[in-house]
Amino acid sequence: MIESVTSRIISNIRYGRPRPNPIPKVRIIKEILRLYPPEALLVPRESINHCKINGYDIRPKTRVLVNAWTIGRNPESWNDPEKFSPERFKYSSVDYKGQHYEYVPFGAARRICPGIGLGVAMVELALANLLYCFNWELPSEMKEEAISMDETAGIIVDKKYDLRLVPVKYVLE
Ligand code: HEM
């Protein structure tokens, strides 16, 4: 108890208050990972004991695949799940560290991704540089509606069609 009060005070001194959670760029990355988790099917598991889930009998030694893609779009957990809306994380404590089973882009439990910190930092760095250094435009013949968000099917998910954009160097006047 004392420890948690102390750490709250320290974090208030560090970051000021009130502070929405988390900062906007992280919300965008969280929302991308909710809708498009690169590893759509987590590392396969094998059940040890017999159990029943949603009326289905899962016998011992059954290979279980957890679908992170579907979990992130479950309407029972998410309002308007197909909508890209980073704001949904503004006042929500749901994060990807494996404690919230409605959101598992890095998995959960013993096999959770050990590279979360590095992975998020790399995405943030790449995205920040792309947005800081360039304005991005569509090729002249292309309409916005033509951008396809279709994905390939499989354990690792990729864009089905490449995103073609024209970088225009951004120069501060
Ligand atoms: C945005 C980037 C990344 C995403 C979305 C991601 C996602 C995942 C997921 C979903 C799993 C399976 C977890 C489970 O089944 O519970 C996993 C496992 C793993 N990831 Fe990542 N990962 C990322 C970056 C990284 C990086 C940068 C590293 C290493 C530097 C890394 C190393 C690993 C390893 C070693 C495992 C296997 C863990 C095990 O099976 O015990 N990942 N990752």
Automatic annotation (TrEMBL):
Alphabetical keyword list: Heme, Iron, Metal-binding, Monooxygenase, Oxidoreductase
A Pfam match: p450
InterPro entries given in the database record: CYP450_71D, Cyt_P450, Cyt_P450_E_grp-I, Cyt_P450_sf
Binding positions for heme per the UniProt entry: C113
Cofactor(s) needed: heme
Gene3D superfamilies linked to this entry: Cytochrome P450
Metal-binding found in the keyword field: yes
GO biological process, one term: secondary metabolite biosynthetic process
GO MF annotations in UniProt: heme binding; iron ion binding; monooxygenase activity; oxidoreductase activity, acting on paired donors, with incorporation or reduction of molecular oxygen
Family under the similarity heading: Belongs to the cytochrome P450 family.
Protein name in UniProt: Cytochrome P450
